[in-house]
Structure formats: C-alpha cells, structure tokens
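Design review, sub-item: ligand-bound model
Attendees: FS, YL, KQ
YL presented the inputs for the acetoacetyl-coenzyme A complex:
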Amino acid sequence: MPAVGIDDLAIYVPKLYIDYKDFAEARGIDPQKLEYGIGIKKMALADANQDSACMAANACLKLMQRNRLHPQDIGRMYVATESALDESKAMNSFVVGMLEQIYGEGSFEHAGGIECKFACVSGSYALYDNANWIRAEENSGKAAIVIVSDIAKYDIGSSGEYTQGAGAVAMLITKNPRLMAFDQKVASTIIKNEYDFYRPFGKETPLVNGTYSNLLYLIQVRKAFDSYKERAIKSGLIKLQDGESITDHIDFFSVHLPYRKMGEKALAYLLRHEWRHLPRWKNVIKEIGMAEPHPKDQRGTIESILADTEFMKADEKFRRAFMQTSYFNEVFEKKMASSLEASAIIGNLYTASMYMGLRSLLEFEYKKGTDLEDKRVGFGSYGSGSSAMVFSGIIQPDYKEIVKRMDLEQDIGERVKLPIEVYERLHRNEKTCSEFLARPHKEFVLVKVGGLTADKAGFREYVYVK
Ligand code: CAA
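KQ shared the predicted structure:
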C-alpha cells in the first residue's frame, strides 16, 4: 500500500491574548499555579470579528497558498470542530464560501467533505478516513485537506477558565507525503458513553467534571494504546526484545493538550503502565523511594477509584515523585517537551491542540538540531464523551523542506495583550463584529451574523481583508 500521511500543515492563531499574570491577579490565583500547575503563560482569544470557521479558512488559505494549490488539486475538505456554528450547515461549507472569494465561485464544486464532531478527537478520525480514501485510490489523484479549528471557552470564574484558547491547523493529506507517513493497520480506538465534558445544545460553555475528565482521558488513551501495542506487535511493525517497552520504539509523543501539564501527566501515566512489569521498574522504585500504591478495588470503576481518597492521595504523591525521576525526565525531555511549547503560549485548541503539538514538536526539535528522519511519532488523541485514538507516523526524508520554515512567533504575528476587563466584555459577547480589537491583515473575518429579514437569519457573512 502506498505511503499516505501529512504532506504539510499550516496554522492560524488569533492575535488577541491574555497574560497569565494579569489573569492570576484578577482571579486571586497564585501565578505559579498557572505557570507550573497548569502550564499556561498566554491564552489566545478569538476577536469580535472571528469565529471557528474563519480561523479554519485562514489556516486553509495559508496551506493552499504556500503549496501553490488550486482547488482542482483538492478532492476533499473536512473540518473537525466542537465549536459548530450551525446544527445543520457544516463548517466546511462556510470555509468553501470564504475560499471562493479568492479562487472564484464554484471553484470547489468538484470536491466533497463534512464537518466532524467528537469533542477533541474528531480531527484524528478525519485524518484516518481521508488517509484511507487516498489509500483506496478513490481520490482520482487529488489530495485531501483536514482542518481542525476550535475556540475553547469556559465560564468566567470556573476552573476551566485558565484552560481557554483559540486557533486552527490545516493539514494536507497526500500519497508519498513530504512530512509524515502514517503507520498502517495500527490505529486503535476506544469509545464509551461518558459525561466528563459536554456542551448541550444552545450552551456556549461546557459542563465539566474536571477531575473525572482528567482521569478518564488517561485511562481511555492508555486502553487505546494497549490495543495499538497489540496490533503493532502482531503486524510486525514493532518487534519487542526482552525487557523492552513499546514506548522505547516511539521516538516522540504528541498527545491531546487541554493544557500543557496534561501532556506531562499523560506521558507519566503511560510510562508507569508500560514499565511496571519490566526489570527497569525496580530502579525507578528505588529512585522514588516508595512502593506504587494500588486502589482497594483494583477492578473498580473510575468513580470508585476517585472515591478511594486514601489511594488517590498516595497515587498523587507517587505520580509527582515519578515525574521527578531521572527515568521519567530523560524520556520527557527527549520525546515530549518540544510538543508542549506552543500549548503554553496559545492554550487549549480542543480538536487542534494535538496537531498544534505536532507542529510545535517539529519546529522545536528541528531548531535543536535533531535529525528527525525516520523517527516515529506516537499520537494519543482524546475526545470527551468519550473516545480515544492512538496511532503513529514516520517522519519522511523530505521533512526539512517543510519544517525549516516553521516559526511559531512569526506565524502568529504581532500579538495584542488584552486587559482583563476587555477580555471579560469579549467573553460576554458584548462586542459586535465591527468592534474588533486587532487589525486584520490578509485574512478572513466575520462581518455580519444574521440578516435584517427572517429569510437571512443564521447567515454569516465573511470578507477577506487585504
Ligand atoms: N504553585 C504551583 N502549582 C500549583 C499551585 C501553586 N501555587 N497550586 C496548585 N498547583 C498545581 C496543583 O498541585 C495541580 O498540579 P498536579 O496536577 O501536578 O497535582 C495543578 O496546579 C492543578 O491544580 P488543581 O489540581 O487544583 O486543579 P484545578 O482545580 O485548577 O483544575 C482542571 C484543573 C481540572 C484541569 C480544570 O482546569 C478543568 O476542569 N479544566 C477543563 C477540563 C479539562 O481540561 N480536562 C482535561 C481532560 S478532558 C479533555 O482533555 C478534553 C478537553 O479538551 C476539555
């Protein structure tokens, strides 16, 4: 089967942001908690004239212009989001509408695509489906574009408020990609009905069970990883020697990042799970200086584990100590740290957060001088509600052509720091599209929502600002 994967990716991040120190002062929180406990310094915010569709279109336009793509080169465009704008009209139709302003009316008529939803994991399903569309040669030689775009917005004063963010990533999916080819027949999923984080119809901010969602994320990704491991060994993709863990065969990790620290916790959880039966665990325990605790009811539910306060306390202590060990730190620094840089200065991007993490990994490893050719990236994608997908890909020989021009600061552009009172007005939707705070430049913006007449209700009008 031909190699299929990500040929290139482009990002769009809105210019407005709030600084963690201002935020901490306004909410009476220790700034150290935000910087180290959560891992956030700047949270990107959508302006009054921006929504998830125009961010998606902006990322897509960058991708197309940079690669000199014409709409005729594209056979499918999928948008994965949990910031939908309409219960029926898909976000990619809005995106196509915007792109037609550049490429001409009807320029995408030959193509297809849908909007995908499953909290933060849907972009991974969209990549998988489109990669298979190309592998099956249903694509008539055309490429697919998968865009992940979201605005993470939580209630003012809630513990989710410091995990907000906004942005989009557009990915070009092709045969023989320059950047990364997906490993085949190993992508593994898990799905279960859960209420860890959800947003009922008409509600702008989610209902969240924070502690439960954290643990569920860890467990679901770990279960999907178990299934990935089984498939990778069975298919011969990875051959384990005695005393080895499958994590030894993954050169980099990119996981869903609701906030930076969650990436570190996910790696710690995975390594504990993978290492505890290996000879190296004895040395880890020696360095930690305490035995790994176990819940009273080992086969219990997440609720019963969370209710076991004695275990939870001991496990937190053990987890923190494990994350201080030289064993954990070596893997973390080498295989994950670079993927977390962008999260700390942008915030949660829901569907886009893991792919912004991939972009961050590539840029900062390249800047460190790491040779990335042939390296395997393992992905841990999680969507509340809930589903996880674990898959992997190999960085291709031509990756430098793409990665050398990556520059996060330049890509975001000059940022505008908002005073907290202005952020709060924006959060309460008190500003109209014309009261934007950052001057748009070479991008699509929202100029009108709804019409003066009933037949125009729900219409969203966008323009390209030169
Ligand atoms: N200095 C340094 N660190 C400090 C500190 C201080 N003064 N005070 C507290 N901290 C640390 C805590 O020790 C803790 O660290 P550890 O995790 O290492 O123990 C960390 O700061 C967080 O503090 P809390 O445990 O008190 O947690 P919180 O009340 O701030 O809530 C949260 C954190 C649950 C993630 C909350 O922000 C939330 O509900 N977020 C939204 C839901 C979410 O993101 N869930 C993640 C999984 S679900 C998912 O991934 C889907 C999605 O995108 C939403």
